[in-house]
Structure formats: structure tokens, C-alpha cells
Amino acid sequence: MKHIYIHFPYCLYKCHYCDFNSHARKPGELKDETKLFLSALQKDWQQQFSDCLDFDHALAGESVQTIFFGGGTPSLMKGEHIKIILDFIRADVVFSDNIEITLEANPGTLSAENLQSFKQAGVNRLSMGVQSFSDQNLQRFGRIHTGEEAVAAIELAKKYGPKELSIDLIFGFPDQSLASWESDLQQALKFKLKHLSCYQLTAEAGTKYTQDLRQGVWQDPDQEVMNQMQDLTISLLNQNEFHRYEISNYAKPGYESRHNLAYWHFESYLGLGPGAWGQMRRSDAKLKSFQLLRRVLIKDPLSYQKAVGSGNFWREENIPEDTALGECLMMGLRLSDGIELSVLQKMFPNACGEDFEVAKQQAIAKGWLSQKAGRLCPTEEGLRWNNQLAALFL
Ligand code: SF4
């Protein structure tokens, strides 16, 4: 299995816009919770790895190329916890020599000591959720750190942390001006990083932010200003030699997130931990066979821990080939490089038929898609209207 995602479900505080499977815990509660999490995670791995062997021996035998610790706030774990996890995985599979091991981090949880311990444990890429350098924005959305603390955390991470560092920023806070977003971008550029993620704030169901919008605490952000922010991001980062390789992700050549590329390329991956998703695919172009098994684990951390020993801690679905093709296009057309047609035809030996051709021609006619050198690539407009583009294939 080339790609593994591990979900650590705890945070110190629930950010107001967050709809991830994250649960606020006091620092004093984390020690015991983390212990229980580690023990459950090991059983989770053993069960799912054994299932993967049953599904496709070749898939299970592949060397691991990427591991991603997401959450939640996995930087609340210690380096020794990360090492325990990597050791039990490595007991069953081979790690590739150039494996990418990413840890998501909250700037409010970092110190020289834990950064060094993550690095020693084997983490070689840190993805830091900075979101903004403006205290006003950070406070409005319940972040646990200030702008100054974010700057200090980035400097510490560059000095003591894993080799690669990426930061996440969010734009489109209500009342945020274009100048304030430019200031966040300019501040981020000062650190001479190789990877930046710039997400547009969205109002997700069930979040405090969405509730506040409904109750009139905030006005909906102005879509015209949001578009200007997106355009500014693209041009400013291009001027600084970042290429936009995915709708919200920018990198210097060779520094793209390999783990996230695996999702956008619709590869197989195992998802471990509460609420994690995984998928296993096997297709044979000659035999015209296809199978995609999607698995979603129990979300609630306590229920997950209780169920994990019983072998019944997920919901599983066989995804029909035409549905999977639509999903694959939805993911792949987020990438500037798009999708190679021959890869698509190998992955989906029966589904790239008439319906697919009709949708493709419609997307080309709308100016959202181009076909060149055997690839289907979204145009600038296609990236802007990605949801509508993807909908043509679903
Ligand atoms: S730190 Fe991240 S995962 Fe945790 S609540 Fe905030 S946005 Fe969600």
C-alpha cells in the first residue's frame, strides 16, 4: 500500500469554521486519550493491513511512499508517539527510501523540543495551519495562537523542524479587505517556503461560523472580493515562482505534496484512526475488471476505540465503476496538469464510453477543459468553476 493516512482526532479548541472530525480536549486529558488512541490505532492497522492482503496481495506488498498525520491536531502527540506508530507499520511493510512523512501542526503547539522530536521520529514534512497573521482574523475564528506566535512557530520550525515546511492560509473572512489578504500573503512569502496552501473560507454545515452567519453575527463575504483575492493569490505567487498545481495549492517545482497528489490521482490508500477514509482499487484493462472498495471508519473517538478490537469499526461500500470515474474526474480536474487519458482508460476499462465523451465535449465547448498531448486539463476558467465542471461528469 503506497499511501497511508492517519487521523488524530483531538484539538485544544474547536475553531469556529472547522467541520473536521476534531474534538476539543484539555491538555490534562490528552495524555490518557493519546494512550488509548495509540493502542486502538495499532489494532486498526493490523486489521486493515490484513484486509488489504486479502483484497489484493500486490497492493498490500507495495512499498509505502507517503504517510500523512492529519487531524485534529496531530502535533499534540509527542515524537515518541509518532515513532511508535511508524514502527508498528514498518513491522509489516517496507518504507520507500524517499518516503514523505507529513505531520499537520498547529502553531500554538510547537516548541524547539517537539519539533526536534518529530524530525527524529522520521517526519520530514510539516504542514502548519497558520490561517492568517492578523490577530483580528485569528480571534474571530477561535484559533489558539496569535499572528506573532505563528511567525515565531514558523521560524522555530525552519530551525529545528522537519526538512520541508508548508503553511496553510485562509482567505475570505467576513469584512476582510483585499489589502489585508495581500498582507498575509506578503508575510508568508518572507519565509521563502517551497509550498503554500491558500484556501477560500467556506461555511460548512454544523460549524459555529455557519451558525453566526445565519444569526447575522457576520455578513456573507462579498463574492467579488473573494474572486479578487483568488486572482491576487495566483498572480502574486506566480511572480514568486510558485506554480499553482491544484486549485488551492502552490509549490516550487518538485515540492508538491506527494500524499495529496495521490488523492487527486485517485490512487488507493489506507485511512487509519477515527473518521478516516480509505479506498482500495484493483482494475485490469485486459480482463476489463474493476473494483473499488471505499471504507469510512467510525467517527467518534471513544466508539472507535471500543469497536476497533471487534473488527467492525467501519462502513464499507463497493463503488460502481461509472460513479468512481466521475469521482476520479472530480479529483483529477482540480489539478492544473489534469488527467492523462490513457491512465483513465486503464483505471476504468468499461466506463470511458459515450456518456464520458458527451460530458467531455460539453466541458470543452464551455471553455472549461482542453485536451492536449493525451491529457485532459482544466482551463483557468475550469479551475474557477471546478464544481460545475466536475458536475458534468457525475
Ligand atoms: S486546529 Fe484544525 S482540526 Fe482543530 S479545530 Fe482548528 S481547524 Fe479544526
Q: Tell me the overall shape.
A: globular
Q: So, CATH architecture of the largest domain?
A: Alpha-Beta Barrel
Bound molecules: iron/sulfur cluster
Strand content: 15-25%
CA-CA gap between termini: 28 Å
Overall domain count: 2
Tell me the helix content: 40-55%
Number of helices: 16
- Oligomerization status of the protein chains: single chain
**Which class of secondary structure composition applies to the elements?**
alpha/beta
The side-by-side strand order for the widest beta sheet comes to 9-10-8-7-6-5-4-1-11
Number of strands: 17
Contiguous uncertain segments of 5+ residues: none
| Named CATH topology of the largest domain | TIM Barrel
Question: Quick check: average pLDDT?
Answer: 96
User: Roughly how many Å is the radius of gyration?
Assistant: 21 Å
Main CATH class of the largest domain: Alpha Beta
Quick one: biggest sheet?
Answer: 9 strands, mixed
Structural write-up:
The protein has helices at residues 27-55, 57-61, 79-90, 112-121, 135-140, 147-160, 178-189, 208-214, 223-239, 258-264, 301-307, 321-332, 341-347, 354-365, 380-384, 386-391; strands at residues 3-8, 10-11, 23-24, 64-71, 95-105, 125-131, 164-171, 195-200, 243-246, 249-251, 270-272, 277-284, 289-297, 314-318, 339-340, 369-372, 375-378. The longest helix is centred in the first third of the chain and has 29 residues, at 27-55. 43% of the residues lie in helices and 23% in strands. By secondary structure, the chain is of the alpha/beta class. It is built from 16 helices and 17 strands. The chain has 2 domains: 3-262, Aldolase class I (TIM Barrel), CATH 3.20.20; 328-394, no CATH class. The protein is globular and about 55 Å long. The structure holds iron/sulfur cluster. Iron/sulfur cluster (SF4) is lined by residues 11, 14-15, 18, 20, 22, 71-73, 106, 129.
